[in-house]
Amino acid sequence: MAGIFEADLVEYRELLDRAFMLESEDCPALQMLRDGKDVGSNSLVEWTAKALPGVNPWGIVEGAPVTTFDSTKRLTLSNYVQQFDQAWSVSDRANKIKSAGMEKATEAGEQAMDAMVLLRKQIEMQILSLSDAKVQAGQVPYTCRGMGSWISASAQTQLPVPATLRNASADIWTSTTALLTQDEFEAIINSCASERKGKVTLDLICAPLLKTKINSYVDFYPVASTTSQITAMYQKGNGRTFERMTDFLNFSGSTVRTHLSYYVGMDVSTDKVAVSTAYTNRGGYLINVKQWDIGWMDRPTPYTLPDDGSGPRGYCRAYMTLRCYDPRGQGRIWSAT
Q1: Residue 322 β-bridge partners
Q2: Collapsed DSSP state (helix, strand, coil) of residue 154
Q3: Dihedral sign (CA 285, 132, 33, 31)
Q4: What domains lie within the chain, and their CATH numbers?
Q5: In this structure, how many other beta carbons lie within 10 angstroms of the beta carbon of residue 238?
Q6: Sheet of 172-173, strand order
Q7: What is the pLDDT of residue 229?
Q8: Which backbone phi and psi does 61 adopt, to 5 degrees?
Q9: Distance, CA of 82 to CA of 134 (rounded, Å)
Q10: Contacts of 11 (CB under 8 A, 6+ apart)
Q11: Distance between CA atoms of 337 and 333, rounded to whole angstroms?
Q12: Residue 248 belongs to what H/E stretch?
């Protein structure tokens, strides 16, 4: 986060005394996932899951001895703890000026507050990324596995998920958004329900164009020509409202709730700046929130640095990992077009 100086401020008092945030502060995934057990002091975090063995439904011949024995095996899942930093600084003169739009008593307090917002966005982007877990090596830091890598039908490069806990290929959509019809979407849901052997409630964290596609599921075409399509209108009082949205979908295999996000599948450029990818507009994750939590080594915390004469400065820092207890029964919609 670049330092702020007097020239960057708006000091004219005839302006409305408010600074408008030009970007949403919402972090739907971070708000949705629960805080789990705090992690310890190790960079590698491990937990166990149980996989039930197959059963014999055919019965036993009378008098036959017990010769076959089963056991419920424990499988190990793991992820690395990732460090997030967001630094800020203010010149001494800028900190003494009363600038338009200040909510805190000083500009330093204002910048420290904004740094916490940006830190949460960093964590949100990592949660919704396709990043695999990475062990620190040279200039590559520890990286925690994102949702896109957890929900996978193939083995991960680092800390691979045991084969019996990986997703079925039918859980993951990789074709175009245009081909994701209602029937195709329901096929993904049914695949997820089959893995859980029962109906589940899924939350779809979806990019804007994917949400638009889901919204089109309420369209009704009475004839082959779309020019004759009937448009649904909601009458309320003397006005009329055009509504074309689908926030809840009920299937025989699951109930799906949709949540719009603008951070799905983001990447990091060579100069370490977050950039959108094709999936940021079209991707999405079908998750069972009961199977996820966040493990904190250190929750988002502000720190101040000693004044060296240039003005107040500090940073916000957090250490976290993303835990998935069973990826099965969850899906990924990964369309680039």
Answers
A1: 294
A2: coil
A3: negative
A4: 22-50+75-333 (3.90.1690)
A5: 5
A6: 172-173, 331-333, 284-287, 200-206, 254-260, 248-250
A7: 58
A8: -65, 135
A9: 9
A10: 97, 98, 99, 100
A11: 12
A12: strand 248-250
Q: Do 328 and 196 touch, CB atoms closer than 8 A?
A: yes
Mean pLDDT per 10-residue section of the chain, whose length is 337 residues:
59 44 70 91 89 76 83 88 94 79 75 91 94 91 95 95 94 95 92 89 95 83 56 59 80 89 85 83 95 94 90 94 95 94
Task: Annotate 179-234 with DSSP letters as a single string.
Answer: T--HHHHHHHHHHHHHHHTS-EEEEEEE-HHHHHHHHGGG-B-SSS-GGGPBPPEE
Is the distance from CB of 311 to CB of 88 less than 8 angstroms?
Answer: no
| Terminal-to-terminal C-alpha distance of the chain | 33
Dist. CA 87–CA 119, nearest whole Å = 9
Tokens of 205: 């964290």
Assigned token pair, 68 = 């076959």
